[in-house]
Amino acid sequence: VSNFQHYFKRINLRGSMLLNLLHLLLLPLLAWCGEEQESVLVLGGQGLAGSATLEALLQSKYQVTTLNDNKNYYDYHELFNGRVESLACLRAGGLSGCFELQNFIKGNPKIRAVVDFTSSTRALMEEAVEVLGPLKPDVYVFVSAAAVYDVAVPLPAPIEEEEVKRPESITMRESYSDRNIFGHNMLGAEEALRESGIPFVILRCADIVGPRDTTYRWWQYQVWSEHFDIINTGFVVPNMLKNMRFSLTYGGDVGQAVVSALGKGVTNRAYNVAMDKPFTLPHFL
């Protein structure tokens, strides 16, 4: 301050003008620092879509708390230690038994949102909405999967997101469920969330690709592409997959979709999240 005063004295400006100028410069910064950050609880958040979502939330100035097993996938700890509050908990052991979560709920009578990457069955979702209900989230964002369409009544494309319904026939329901147990479980989780009465947004993703993939699905193709001159053979694609068209979702887009869902204020809707065109595996590679 003394340096500034000396400078302004030299150019014959009054000290009060300096104070007024500093006030004008610092007021927006002080106002920004004083803003209370909205709190978001993320269940999971360590994988390729989860870590991208954490980064997107942090960049959007949300206060982020994660609930997961605290495993270090790739550079997860390096990226987020000190930037998010971490609650250690195993979903297999039940949320009601998570001591750190119970303390978090007691200290947070209301939060902006829950973002859920982990409730992959009806039972897990029922448990989550019961235990987390006291947080009174404005919206519960559930990251679901496009596989729910495989257990729903077939409809001609394009299918509206809200048209997903199970067959009325019990026999057909069981047949569809046996055909895709993952889709059956995810649709069950969606149904439990809808029945809870909590405002929700459901994001249905196709197969997710991108950095920090914890499934290792693409590593063999990565090795082939990096060492083609040594291996001296082309990509091996199973015949049944050569002409099969499929959708993909980029992990970073999931994070942006979550932030968009929180910003728009629209609830009780489902949205598809995917790249703008389908691929075949040879085309994608």
Based on CA inertia axes, which overall geometry fits? Answer: globular
Poorly predicted parts:
1-34
Give the mean pLDDT: 85
Residue share in helix: 40-55%
Strand order of the largest sheet: 3-2-1-4-5-6-9
Layout of SSEs?
Elements: H1 2-10, H2 15-34, E1 39-43, H3 48-59, E2 63-68, H4 76-80, E3 85-88, H5 99-107, E4 113-116, H6 122-132, E5 139-145, H7 170-179, H8 181-196, E6 200-205, E7 207-209, H9 219-226, H10 228-231, E8 248-250, H11 251-264, E9 269-273, H12 281-284
In short:
The protein has 285 residues and is of the alpha/beta class.
Short key terms for the protein model shown above:
285 residues; alpha/beta; seven-stranded parallel β-sheet; two-stranded parallel ribbon; 12 helices; 9 strands; 43% helix; globular; disordered N terminus
Textual characterization of the structure:
The chain is an alpha/beta fold. The chain has 12 helices and 9 strands. A 7-stranded parallel sheet has the order 3-2-1-4-5-6-9, sandwiched between helices. Strands 7-8 form a two-stranded parallel sheet. Strand 1, helix 3 and strand 2 (63-68) form a beta-alpha-beta unit. The radius of gyration is 24 Å and the shape is globular. The N and C termini lie far apart (60 Å).
